[in-house]
Write a structure and sequence with these properties.
three-stranded mixed beta sheet, alpha/beta, seven-stranded mixed beta sheet
Length: about 375
């Protein structure tokens, strides 16, 4: 038990140092409320698979941008859809002049389907900077202008905030866990922003991201890891850092993207398991942070059970758990303020008590048992990356 406490204490200390590091990085990020009036050429790529319920609103949101139609193009990849996605896109092309579509009917098992879709779309554009979003997202009318204002010659990746948009709940229990999910989702973005403040690429929001086209052209193997199922955003920002590009975080209110949340607990676990399954392929800094966090959270998760046999260690456990509560709360409150968002205290407190075991569970599932994504079952990650 002494060795266990020693290891947990060290991991708690390292965790606290990381939070302080992210806090400093978040402080470095300056608001960018200005919007570009230069209108550099941009391309927006959307990979859509069986998105008949959402793709129309996404394309309409993109077509309603306060940006000259001849200065940006919308490229939607219909990736082997089996519903009405293709028909909806054909209809939209009649009224959206800058919409182009690509239809994919097959994909090699050696490459991630989404990455294959993105590669095919990038090949069709010469725009130096490309934005990506998902086929179920809605953008602010000045979304493009907020990103255009961030463009510099050495910019590699810029990313911004994505918020869940849900207006109705089936019952009180769904309201509870959906609000907790929203806070947990935002916690990833607060860490992401803190790393970017130091020009460190931990991850990015693939549904709210702009990248330098050269990252695909010159560093395709590093930036995409084609054989790994997901992680296009995860690997491209790490490649941008590795190749000494500038990273930026879009704090403009116009840079916020709205997306529907996962609607079932099973879907939430699958999504987070998919995210965690890529960690083993991350760069050293991201891997060290992730492994230490997992170790710390694992210790906090099993400690209450150990107290049945070692009740005298109760105060020590409270101290170890207090490190997480104190550091998380200070950072999240600051992050929400920085993002111009409002943190619900009640849902946050409930989420904080369940956070550690939840992360441990999804990490184990993602690493050992795989996940379901877009109707297919994956065992960890395919390919060698």
């Amino acid at each position: 038990m002494v060795l266990f406490n020693m290891i947990l204490g060290i991991s708690a200390g390292v965790y606290l140092l990381f939070i302080l590091y992210f806090l400093r990085g978040l402080h470095k990020i300056r608001p960018n409320n200005g919007l570009s009036d230069d209108y550099p050429p941009l391309a927006v790529i959307v990979a859509a698979r069986n998105e008949e319920q959402h793709v129309r609103s996404t394309v309409q949101s993109l077509s309603a941008q306060n940006y000259p139609n001849d200065r940006y193009e919308i490229i939607v990849v219909n990736d082997r859809s089996e519903d009405k996605t293709g028909a909806i896109l054909d209809e939209l092309k009649e009224t959206v002049s800058n919409l182009r579509t690509i239809t994919i009917t097959s994909c090699s098992p050696d490459i991630s389907p989404k990455k294959h879709a993105l590669i095919e779309a990038v090949k069709t554009t010469t725009c130096p900077f490309i934005l990506t979003t998902d086929a179920d997202c809605v953008q602010h009318p000045d979304w493009l202008r907020s990103y255009a204002a961030l463009i510099e010659d050495d910019l590699g990746v810029a990313t911004g905030i994505t918020r869940f948009q849900q207006r109705t709940y089936h019952n009180r229990f769904e309201r509870l866990w959906q609000n907790m999910q929203a806070i947990e989702y935002m916690s990833h973005q607060v860490v992401m922003a803190g790393a970017i403040g130091h020009n460190r690429g931990f991850t990015a929001n693939g549904n709210n991201m702009m990248f330098n086209r050269q990252l695909y052209v010159a560093y395709e193997s590093d930036a995409l890891r084609k054989g790994i199922v997901s992680g296009d955003d995860f690997f491209i920002i790490q490649t941008a850092e590795k190749k000494h590009y500038r990273l930026k975080f879009n704090l403009s209110p116009a840079g916020v993207v709205q997306t529907p949340p996962q609607r079932t607990l099973r879907a939430v676990i699958n999504q987070r398991a998919r995210w965690s399954s890529k960690i083993g392929r991350a760069k050293a800094g991201v891997l060290f942070f992730s492994l230490n966090t997992f170790l710390y959270y694992l210790g906090l998760t099993i400690y209450p059970g150990l107290l049945l046999f070692f009740p005298s260690y109760g105060p020590l456990f409270l101290g170890m758990f207090g490190v997480k509560v104190f550091s998380d709360t200070f950072y999240m409150v600051y992050g929400y303020h920085k993002f111009g968002q409002k943190l619900n205290s009640l849902y946050y407190i409930l989420m904080e008590f369940l956070h550690a075991p939840f992360i441990v569970i999804v990490a184990v599932i993602g690493s050992l048992f795989g996940f379901t994504w877009k109707g297919a079952r994956y065992k960890v990650e395919v390919g060698s990356g």
